[in-house]
């Protein structure tokens, strides 16, 4: 039999008077018991459960007098029974659909619960307050369940009724053949019934919240109606999502905090996200290498809930994420942020998705300020009216605003903060936005109007806590080498050298313990590498520079030393320079085209020797962290390894780029058979694709970086 669908109208699941899930009701039947006298009703009837027929299935009922005085309204216990009957029938229909099997009349013990409430009502002569609250909740649930065809809601129906059935089974076993008089005069049974009363209120309230959350996350029907505005085209940067397959989308690698670290920071963010009374925007700032992105990644993971989570403990869930990066054009384009976030939110919040129906599709091509208002703030404000206030907040995480082109991060944040402050008090209720960036003065000034509770500067954290976290990370990483055990003194030396920068610790481990050789490393190998590093001057005497500079300097110095032995140091410098100043990650073919004097084999040797700071993904060369290009392109910090703006190499690469374009650019470069055929529809051979990629890199290099830096 087909189960009717639950396309639940939010108004139907109206808030019901009663306790919230995290504050169980202090129900007590003690006053009820004390008010009952033997003369109030004939309670000498046995509590034996006898079968009776209902809707073709066997259910149970106690031996109670169902007679009713003429003109008197039906007892509330009868309504409880009939509503439970209906819910049981819905669950019986759903069970085969959920489990794929046909069960013979399951859930037959549920109505024992109705028997208890019926006996209570007959003994007292009237219904209790609990009866009224329970019937209200059950009726709302029945109405909602009768309308569902959602598979997830079906599963929840079956689980809920199975839970009630287990309660009925325990009741049936405990009651046995005792009379109702004995039941209500036995302390143990009184306690059991008090627990039942409390459980029923809690279970129905939690199930109602569960259904609310399931239907808020069921966006299928709403998304079908959004096809007219081509929602999928709003996903302008799929690689921006926190847990995307970085190899498939050629995105920078992202990692969570090492277990046991950053507990206080993560707890502060969690407390803000789960507190409905806190401001909607939270700013996390820190210098390069302090771990902002790993904190943002861990936060995403913590709030990326699944359907198995207890709705009673869900206070916020991940609605969307966007991780900016200067290494990928899509991830440093401000215009991609809000459309991509709106796309993700629409797939997780049906109320928000419904509010997007009236949005103009052309807004994705407008300014960031217009996008923020038309694709985020205004639609969310419209959705608030149809969104149940008990639903958990939706968390949006935007990482590394400082990685956007030019000063776009500052402009974007200004628009976002202004839009949030201009909105009415409850317009953004249920929406939380976490933003991370470096502590740029302009950005810091913009967020100064936010509450102190929603501004967290990693530099302000107790240094002892940060050092302890770095120590935990290093200890864990070094334990991956067999027989290696660093002393407390050795760990302390490394922690002091890190000087609060997690990127130092991460780069150190990659440099000393290459991932590809970790199985072959011995404790002796690691100790020798550590001694060499510790004996190298850190280059920051007198407090100048950053602690990580010495490590970067040694990594580059080792590479140049190896190349010097082959008398190819200058070529190695050119390779590193080309990688760092390219407008986007370049391929090996593009690299050798820019530097005709080198071959692919030598280029790979240079790249391999820089494994601690550079990696290859999908054939393109990336840097692990933005702090490495920052170091190399700063003359004060990089000293002899300098390849900055005034380097002669810039002019050399500019000339190479112009030469490639002069030789290769021509009319109809793709050899299309017709000018009416779009390039995307053309079938290009592999040689054409390679040439086109080289030319594109040359154009971006010449016009984007080198021309600017050589003037």
Automatic annotation (TrEMBL):
Cited Pfam families: NPHP3_N (PF24883)
Chain intervals for the UniProt region annotation (Disordered): 1-25, 50-76
Keywords: Repeat
InterPro entries named in the record: NPHP3-like_N, P-loop_NTPase
Gene3D superfamilies (UniProt xref): P-loop containing nucleotide triphosphate hydrolases
Domain Nephrocystin 3-like N-terminal: 267-438
Record-linked PANTHER family: AMELOGENIN, FUNGAL STAND N-TERMINAL GOODBYE DOMAIN-CONTAINING PROTEIN-RELATED
Stated name of the protein: Nephrocystin 3-like N-terminal domain-containing protein
Organism phylogeny: Eukaryota, Fungi, Dikarya, Basidiomycota, Agaricomycotina
């Amino acid at each position: 039999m087909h189960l009717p669908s639950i396309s639940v109208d939010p108004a139907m699941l109206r808030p019901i008077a009663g306790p919230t899930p995290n504050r169980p009701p202090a129900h007590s039947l003690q006053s009820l018991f004390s008010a009952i006298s033997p003369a109030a009703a004939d309670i000498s009837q046995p509590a034996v459960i006898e079968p009776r027929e209902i809707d073709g299935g066997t259910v149970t009922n106690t031996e109670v007098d169902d007679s009713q005085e003429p003109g008197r309204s039906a007892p509330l216990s009868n309504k409880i029974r009939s509503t439970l009957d209906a819910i049981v029938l819905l669950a019986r229909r759903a069970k085969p659909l959920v489990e794929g099997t046909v069960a013979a009349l399951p859930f037959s013990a549920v109505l024992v619960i109705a028997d208890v409430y019926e006996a209570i009502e007959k003994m007292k002569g009237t219904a209790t307050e609990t009866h009224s609250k329970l019937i209200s909740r059950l009726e709302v649930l029945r109405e909602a369940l009768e309308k569902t065809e959602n598979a997830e809601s079906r599963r929840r129906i079956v689980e809920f009724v199975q839970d009630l059935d287990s309660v009925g089974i325990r009741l049936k076993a405990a009651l046995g053949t005792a009379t109702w008089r004995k039941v209500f005069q036995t302390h143990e049974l009184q306690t059991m019934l008090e627990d039942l009363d409390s459980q029923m209120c809690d279970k129905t309230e939690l199930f109602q919240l569960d259904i609310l959350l399931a239907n808020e996350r069921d966006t299928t029907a709403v998304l079908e109606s959004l096809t007219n505005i081509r929602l999928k085209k709003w996903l302008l940067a799929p690689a921006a999502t926190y847990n995307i397959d970085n190899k498939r989308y050629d995105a920078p690698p992202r990692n969570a905090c090492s277990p046991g670290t950053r507990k206080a920071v993560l707890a502060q963010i969690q407390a803000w996200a789960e507190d409905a009374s806190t401001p909607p925007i939270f700013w996390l700032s820190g210098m390069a290498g302090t771990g902002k992105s790993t904190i943002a990644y861990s936060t995403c993971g913590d709030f990326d809930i699944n359907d198995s989570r207890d709705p009673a403990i869900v206070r916020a869930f991940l609605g969307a994420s966007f991780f900016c990066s200067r290494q990928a054009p899509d991830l440093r384009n401000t215009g991609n942020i809000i459309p991509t976030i709106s796309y993700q939110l629409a797939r997780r919040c049906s109320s928000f998705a419904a509010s997007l129906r009236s949005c103009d599709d052309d807004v994705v091509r407008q300014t960031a300020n217009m996008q923020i208002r038309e694709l985020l703030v205004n639609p969310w404000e419209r959705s608030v009216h149809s969104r149940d206030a008990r639903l958990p907040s939706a968390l949006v995480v935007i990482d590394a605003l400082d990685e956007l082109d030019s000063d776009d991060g500052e402009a974007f944040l200004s628009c976002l903060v202004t839009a949030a402050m201009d909105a009415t008090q409850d317009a953004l209720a249920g929406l939380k936005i976490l933003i991370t960036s470096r502590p740029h003065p302009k950005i810091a000034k913009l967020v100064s109007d936010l509450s102190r509770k929603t501004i967290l500067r990693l530099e302000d954290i107790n240094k002892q806590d940060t050092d302890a976290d770095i120590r935990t990370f290093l200890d864990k990483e070094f334990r991956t080498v067999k027989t290696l055990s660093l002393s407390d003194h050795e760990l302390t030396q490394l922690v002091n050298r890190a000087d609060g920068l997690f990127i130092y610790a991460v780069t150190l481990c990659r440099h000393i313990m290459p991932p590809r050789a970790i199985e072959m490393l011995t404790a002796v190998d690691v100790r020798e590498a550590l001694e060499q590093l510790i004996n190298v001057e850190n280059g920051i005497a007198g407090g100048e520079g950053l602690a990580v500079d010495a490590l970067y300097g040694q990594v580059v110095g080792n590479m140049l030393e190896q190349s010097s032995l082959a008398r190819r140091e200058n070529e190695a410098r050119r390779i590193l320079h080309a990688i760092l100043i390219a407008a986007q990650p370049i391929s090996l073919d593009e690299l050798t085209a820019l530097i005709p004097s080198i071959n692919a084999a030598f280029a790979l040797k240079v790249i391999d020797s820089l494994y601690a700071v550079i990696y290859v993904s999908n054939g393109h060369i990336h840097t692990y962290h933005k702090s490495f290009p920052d170091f190399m392109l700063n003359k004060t910090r990089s000293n002899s390894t300098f390849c900055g703006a005034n380097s002669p190499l810039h002019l050399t690469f500019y000339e190479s780029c112009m030469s490639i374009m002069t030789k290769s650019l021509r009319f109809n470069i793709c050899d299309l058979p017709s000018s009416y055929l779009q390039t995307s529809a053309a079938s290009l051979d592999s040689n054409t694709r390679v040439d086109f990629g080289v030319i594109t890199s040359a154009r971006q290099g010449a016009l984007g970086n080198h021309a600017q830096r050589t003037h």
